[in-house]
Write a structure and sequence with these properties.
The chain is mainly alpha-helical. It has helices at about 1-30, 45-50, 65-75, 85-90; strands at about 60, 80.
Length: about 100
């Protein structure tokens, strides 16, 4: 009986340690950085990844991923560049399937 209680107690402690470690790891290393309320990267993150000529704005030739497809929708003044205010006011992309 004592051995069973010890085994259950050790199992519960191990479970709690693993759960806490996993939660801490997720908080410190999210799979996708979230700089905006919508869950996507912030403008600063996009600039650091895509602004090839470092002019502080994104040309269509510089953007990648979903921004390419939605460029004309986001480029409110149709000047061929995306700036921070245009990205902040951009319509949120439609998601396929349920959100986690």
């Amino acid at each position: 009986m004592k051995k069973t209680v010890k085994t259950i107690a050790l199992g519960a402690i191990a479970f709690m340690v693993l759960a806490c470690a996993s939660q801490n790891n997720q908080a410190n290393n999210p799979q996708r950085p979230s700089g905006r309320q919508g869950g996507g990267p912030s403008f600063a993150q996009l600039l650091s990844e895509m602004d090839v000529n470092k002019d502080g704005k994104l040309a269509k030739s510089e953007v990648k991923g979903p921004l390419v497809n939605d460029f004309s929708k986001i480029d409110a003044d149709s000047d061929g560049f995306l700036i921070e205010s245009e990205l902040e006011n951009a319509p949120r992309p439609q998601r396929n399937g349920p959100r986690p």
